[in-house]
Amino acid sequence: MKNRLYLSWTVTFVCRMWKISLKYNAMVKKKIFNEKISQQKRNKFFISHQSYHSIEINCHNLLFLMILVKRRDLPFSRKFYDE
Question: Which residue range(s) make up the domain with 66?
Fold first, then answer.
């Protein structure tokens, strides 16, 4: 489970850095070459917003679920730990 959490956060941070790099490169091109790169053009090089948000939400939910299980705060987790 720890490995799955680690990999999910790795994917999340890679997506965040990818998104930031696209935005940064667009700003640099605008300042140096006076090229305006539209949001639509940047979106062609990135995953869809729905996929990005799905990755973020799933990663946070997995972390939250692991914290709840570790603290034994889930209603069914007490049954498993007490047996």
Answer: 2-82
